[in-house]
Amino acid sequence: MPVPASRLTSILHRTPWIPPVAVSGEGIYVTLDDGRRVIDGVGGAAVACLGTSHPKVVQAVKDQVDTLPYIYNMQLSNQPAEELAQNLIASSNGVFELVSFASGGSEAMEGVIKLGRQFFFETGQPQRTNYIARHLSFHGNTLSTVALAYHPSRRLPYAGIVDNEHFHHVSPAYAARFQRQGETEEQYVERLRQELEDKFIELGPDTVIGFVAETVVGATTGVVPAPKGYFKAMKAVCNKYGALFILDEVMSGMGRMGTLHAWQSFGDGAEPDIQAVAKGLGGGYASIGAVLMSKKIATGIRGASGLSKHGHTYQANPLACAASLAVQKAITEENLLDNITKQGKLMGELLHEHLQSPNALAAPYTFDVRGGGGFWGIEFDFEGPGGERVDLKGKQFAMDVQAKSLENGLIIMAFAGGANLEGTKGDHCILSPAYNVTSDEVKRIVELFVKSVEDVLRESFIS
Ligand SMILES: Cc1ncc(COP(=O)(O)O)c(C=O)c1O
Questions:
Q1: Name one GO cellular component term (predicted).
Q2: Taking the model in full, what pTM does it have?
Q3: Are strands 167-170 and 130-134 parallel, antiparallel or unpaired?
Q4: CA-closest residue to ligand 1 atom 16
Q5: What is the enclosing helix (H) or strand (E) of 44?
Q6: For residue 338, what are the contacts with CB-CB under 8 A and spacing of at least 6?
Q7: Is there an atom of ligand 1 within 6 Å of 52 CB?
Q8: Ligand 1 test: best mutation among 138, 220, 254, most atoms within 8 Å of CB?
Q9: Hey, what domains does the chain have and what are their CATH numbers?
Q10: Are 280 and 244 in contact (CB under 8 A)?
Q11: Ligand 1: distance of its center to the CA of 144 in Å?
């Protein structure tokens, strides 16, 4: 009998298990090499915002392969890249003025780090060499983005070579875990604002390049929006000391929260000086990210070198830009921000109902259901009443739910270690379906997810 292809691999995988092989996709369904057809409730990694077979995007990619698949941007520009940049600027209502492209989120954030430094280097403030970001954040997997972010287990293997001199951290904005008893939302925001200001003062305010945050935190803590007023307060500190206010919307941007930019709905409308986007930009049809620059940055750079000092071979790749342009046009033409807002609301309601209503099996262990738009996080906790009934046998609950979901026909994302600063506690799952998901599909996703949570619970109850 032939060994299934999924058992043989020459890839050094990112999972402790050998992942099943996907062979084709249609809408939000993925067919595996064992013939199973599973539903993707999370768009890969919150990427596939149109599913995998949007006819117009597929056609755009095919047309671009026929026309011009590659050109190098140190020699020539190309039409899809120019048009995509114009589209991104036009849709920002004057907030952004220039764009530079990358091949994904980490590269975009690496570009952000270098752009912030280039800006001050070229505009007469070369003493600015420090970045401030937050604990329990994720900004990518290159060495500088690992240093910029802070998540203990993610940086552990690299701690010996991570730059701790130029990257500094303040507390996360995560009310469910870190707002103090008796503290109002306003007081919590003020405490975080003061902490940032203190960090500026400690480092020397005129040494700070910028403050960097995910508008809605994704992987590390599991879809955590900041308290109201937080981004306005943090931006005010940056403005006070002449530093940049920088947002990482690699995961939460380009429509994921129901608005094109997450700061428009979940960030107090606080316009960033620089912003990174990626996942929803290309929707998985191509590997692409982008750095969006405000007028302030554009003016500064134009008045100095006038060019990007940072680049890669596949930057502004015509194939990636053509795919991304078609994705962005489809989001607008098909009114998909409205759809994902509506379907996301339904998803949130169903998750609350089936996981948190008093008679729900998972209620004692569902610490929080949160999110918005098409981005939902479900956090579990076994330290409260009822926890003594469960024996996880040393396993991480969320990871088990991810495995069980796949068995039940649903792809989700699960992470551990977002509930304390040490990264040793916390289990959460993420759902982030395509923006063109239907109500029936949302119901099916939640049904399969809740079933998987309950299956794992039943297997873990002490009899
Ligand atoms: C907020 C954030 N920044 C950066 C990245 C890195 O993006 P990529 O995996 O495309 O390099 C991610 C990926 O999940 C992310 O969520």
A1: cytosol
A2: 0.97
A3: parallel
A4: 251
A5: helix 43-46
A6: none
A7: no
A8: 138
A9: 56-333 (3.40.640.10), 336-460 (3.90.1150.10)
A10: no
A11: 13
